[in-house]
Amino acid sequence: MSRSIAYSSSPLLTSATPVWRSKFIVAALALAFVGLAGRAAYVQVFGNEFFQRQGEVRFARTLELPPNRGRVLDRNGLILATSVVAQSIWAIPQDVDLNEPKLAQAAKLLDMPLAELKRRLNTEKTFVWVKRQVDEPLALQLKALDIKGLYLRKEYKRQYPEGEAAAHVVGFTNVEDVGQEGVELAFNQQLSGKSGSRRVIKDRLGRVIEDVREAIPPVDGHDIQLSIDSKIQFFAYQKLREAVAEHKALGGSAVVLDAHTGEVLALANYPSYNPNQRRNLSGEQLRNRALTDSFEPGSTMKPFIAALALDKGLVRPDTPIQTAPGRLQMGGFTISDVHAYNVLTVNEVIQKSSNVGTVKMAMQLQPRDMWEAYAQAGFGQKPHLPFPGAVSGRLRAYKTWKPIEQATMSYGYGLSTSLFQLAQAYTVFARDGHMVPVTLLKTDQPVQGVRVFSEKNAMAVRRMLEMAAGPGGTGQRAQTVGYSVGGKSGTARKQEGKGYAARKYRSFFVGLAPVEAPRIVVAVMVDEPSNGVIYGGAVAAPVFSETVQQTLRLMGVQPDTNVKPHIVADVVEESV
Amino acid sequence: MTRLNLVLLVAVLGSAFYLVHLQYESRRLYVALDRAKSHSERLAADHEQLVVQKRAEATPARVQQLATRQLQMRAAHPGITEYVALPASAGADGAVAGAVQTLKGPLSAGGRP
After folding, report:
1. Which whole-number Å values give the CA distances from A563 to A515, A556, A559, in the listed order?
2. What is the value of ipTM here, to two decimals?
3. Which of A23, A137, A241, A365 has its CA at 20 to 30 Å from residue B80's CA atom?
4. Which residue among B51, B59, B78 places its CB closest to the CB of A163?
5. Could you tell me the pTM of the whole model?
6. Which residues 27-86 on chain B approach chain A with CB closer than 8 angstroms?
7. Considering A227, A299, A416, A545, which one is annotated as catalytic?
8. Do A78 and B45 lie within an 8 Å CB cutoff?
9. Is A265 helix (H, G, I), strand (E, B) or coil?
């Protein structure tokens, strides 16, 4: 039987305890409280700042607020380039288990071999991009896989709905959203905004629960409205593409300018590329030929000589010039015409594109006057266009000209120009002698030009251009239903090394329409047509014709020539 | 005295709990607000995406292709275009109002029993 002792009668309790023990306990507790109070005071008052900061370091995060890159719009407000949200996938390689079975699914979603994915993740780095800018639905699927160590990051991706038709004008950005080509590069500063930031406190689930300070909102980039009309751009591109295919050419360019405002309505090049998928691009595709390629303009320079000769009072439109026998000896060189003519008037010299007739006019001019007229029309100068890679062409100082050079320059050899400069130069004839500054941005204001030729003489040359594009002229195929056109064809041999290539040509056509009150200037160039036909009047003029017609129709310009209607209006009335 | 202290204690406790509750509520609402904001951002992004898609579906290249292939249409040119001159008064308000009235006339008459 065990001995039991009642609690109240425990012998331990009956023994007297020394008083100091309870006092000691009380004192110890009091000391502990003092310690706590001291610590609390230290944390909350003296060391407050330090602890606040430490707390923030653990919970506060600075979130970057990326700005929206501005859109690129056409003249009617249609989108040419815009940014959409895309997710980029990144990883902390140490955190990813390479034996994770879900990696195979991820690789499939990302459209890359599993081995490649593993190779990327098998690195010492603390951060790697797995794939950038994937579509949103795909990113969500990947997120659903929930693989440890893989993360998503919101980024913006550029979209170019117009595709290859406007690729050279609009250009593109790189994966970091920085412009690389075209307008995206030229107007990069305006388009890109400034990112903002937000300082927030996150809880353990990663949810934002409080703003620490006022957020700095991001400043979005400005939209850029171009003068390009996407419909005209497309037509020009389409016709150009057809012509290049038909003539088995290397490439081509077309420029459409509004003669009233100097706006660039279309600027097309072929071959082109799809800016949405930029793999394996070649320089050939990327080049904005209309601005970056310079060539000898050939016969398209002749109207400038005629205008200058008229301006100087040396000739009148009906002044006869002897061009027989179609050849002209000059300092050991022979200048010849394709067909030999007899006596031609100045009008006919331009219409038939006679080299001999043009040289005879040019040799009466002072080199300085000729140089000035060319320079005023923009030759040898970079167009005032904020475009990467635009060339100035070549126009040598007149003091260094030899007579033979003055002669060849009158019919477009010995100087070089881009197609864009050529189109711009022809605004001189379209605007009654004024040279107009061009712009790639939409404008409503009529522009002030610089006078190059007198109004009367510019109109006289316009008449010559109309003849050149009419019956008996070299550019008859520039004719289009409903609208009167004027223009000059050109065919120039391509330079190769120091000389000219044997059978390589550039064909072009520059003109304006309608002749009475020109609204547009169109220039077309086809590079190395090799299907038997080489002349600008046969290769480039049809593109000009179709582009002019569609452009004027889209601009709502009434036909100015009598059109034989193909529709029978009576039928409509009978059915009412 | 004790009663006053008790009242004050209750008041302090009440205010403290209320403060905790408010803090909690404020964070809850803030999380909801933040979520709504990111939702609105996502919707805006979706909208932009749809606008681009719509635009891509309506590019001149595609429109022309569909019009010629599916609808057998061809490009208009002045030869097959009839230009209708508007009468001088056609653009004026009076003419438009008149046209509307003639439309209304038979309708309202027919509506009456």
Report:
1. 16, 16, 8
2. 0.73
3. A241
4. B59
5. 0.81
6. 27, 30-31, 34, 42, 45, 48-49, 51-52, 55-56, 59-61, 64, 75-83
7. A299
8. no
9. strand
